[in-house]
Amino acid sequence: xxxxxxxxxxxxxxxxxxxxxxxxxxxxxxxxxxxxxxxxxxxxxxxxxxxxxxxxxxxxxxxxxxxxxxxxxxxxxxxxxxxxxxxxxxxxxxxxxxxxxxxxxxxxxxxxxxxxxxxxxxxxxxxxxxxxxxxxxxxxxxxxxxxxxxxxxxxxxxxxxxxxxxxxxxxxxxxxxxxxxxxxxxxxxxxxxxxxxxxxxxxxxxxxxxxxxxxxxxxxxxxxxxxxxxxxxxxxxxxxxxxxxxxxxxxxx
Length: 253
Prior knowledge:
This protein is of the alpha/beta class. It has helices at about 10-20, 70-75, 130-140, 155-185, 190-200, 205-210, 215, 220-230, 230-250; strands at about 1-5, 25-30, 45-50, 60-65, 85, 100-105, 125-130, 145-150. The chain has two domains: about 1-150, 3-Layer(aba) Sandwich (Rossmann fold), CATH 3.40.50; about 155-250, N-(1-d-carboxylethyl)-l-norvaline Dehydrogenase, domain 2 (Orthogonal Bundle), CATH 1.10.1040. Strands 3-2-1-4-5-6-7-8 form an eight-stranded mixed β-sheet, with helices on one face.
């Protein structure tokens, strides 16, 4: 059985903790967070602590904190000959500053504490310095998910950028669409089947073959009508995306 300690209490740490507590192949020995109050809910399920000096002896220590804190936080760990990994998509493995063995355990998913996720479908990208540590991370990953990928730091950086485009930016566009609907008292529910169809379509088509709309058709009349309804900020985003689409499909504005 793999012994694991989670360091952190954010969204990723919360969901990973919830999963590992039910995992029959893993023993979640302990959860650390500098604010003990945030992990008090776990005190009857596993050991909790707010002191790095009280960390137990585990096989894998998973740092699940904000990206910009990983380097400094890891430098405080005294875990020689232990495997310490982080869960960041945008942070290189060598940014871990502990005197330990290093690795990465990146779950490619958007996490919110209020929403449950099916871990068996989440892609997990792993990286380690040694073959032995890689095999250990792979064993842990397989106990959680059916989708495991070996991805190095450079590849993961590109993957994280791609994830920002397909997740964070797309969600911001949902927000703008919601704003536009609210301005004219239109229910955003009307757009949800369209949103789902657009997402489902790329499960069997390449995105470049799934594109539709006035920008692809270079329908300038419709494009200009749309702009008259938009705020200056919305117009800027609309124009930028329209130019990118028309350029992709060989047309010019």
